[in-house]
Amino acid sequence: MRRAVCPGSFDPITNGHLDIIARASKLYDEVYVAVMINKAKKGLFEIDERIDLIRQVTAEFGNVTVESFHGLLVDFCKQRDIPAIVKGLRAVSDFDYELQMAQMNNGLSGVETLFVPTNPTYSFLSSSLVKEVAAWGGDVSHLVPPIVLQALDQRLKKD
Ligand code: PNS
After folding, report:
1. Model pLDDT, residue 159
2. Distance CA 149, CA 93 (A)
3. Which residues bind substrate (predicted)?
4. What is the domain partition of the chain in residue ranges?
5. Which of 52, 67, 75, 90 could pair with 118 in a Cys bridge, judged by C-beta atoms 3.0 to 4.6 Å apart?
């Protein structure tokens, strides 16, 4: 059984994330999406809401499991016998930090990181930008799945 994890904050999941998860799900038998909990960062969506959205949009792949985790990514991997982390690289600007994390994670536990070049359609896309544009009434319907758009509309209406 070949397993990999796609980790992130996913606040909320975007079409860019979904593209990477879809591609990982073709390469591996089982893909975990790890919603990493960062208590220092208050998100727009609660962890359970993020998990629910990701489960809905990845259900069609058939081999994706979504979980949250509070701790080191390498411990998530160790506990589930996952040897590989799959990450999207949007641009050279992502590379510095991603390389540091990949080297740190490999040094900590031997886990490998595989970088997948982001689909150029999404190379500018981030959850933060989606939230900012949506908060000011901009159209993000081409950047997130329809149920995420709905969740954003509802959440931003409330605030
Ligand atoms: O979506 P993000 O916020 O860019 O994802 C970053 C994330 C969550 C993948 C990264 O911060 C992470 O792995 N956090 C878990 C804690 C950890 O293992 N830190 C050491 C990284 S070398």
Report:
1. 56
2. 27
3. 9, 41, 73, 87
4. 3-158
5. 90
In this prediction the pTM is 0.97
Q: Characterize the bridge pairing of strands 3-8 and 30-36.
A: parallel
Query: How many CB atoms lie under 10 A from the CB of residue 47?
Result: 18
Q: Give the atom of ligand 1 at the shortest distance from the alpha carbon of 71.
A: 16
d(CA 18, CA 24): 10
Question: Which residue owns the Cα nearest ligand 1 atom 2?
Answer: 8
* pLDDT tens for each residue of 43-74: 999 999 999 999 999 999 999 999 999 999 99
The pLDDT value recorded for residue 145 is: 98
Ligand 1 in contact with 89 (CB < 6 A)?
A: no
CATH code for the structural domain at 3-158: 3.40.50.620
Ligand 1 atom having least distance to the Cα of 36: 8
Per-residue pLDDT tens over the stretch 97-113? 999 999 999 999 999 99
**Protein residue whose Cα sits closest to atom 21 of ligand 1:** 101
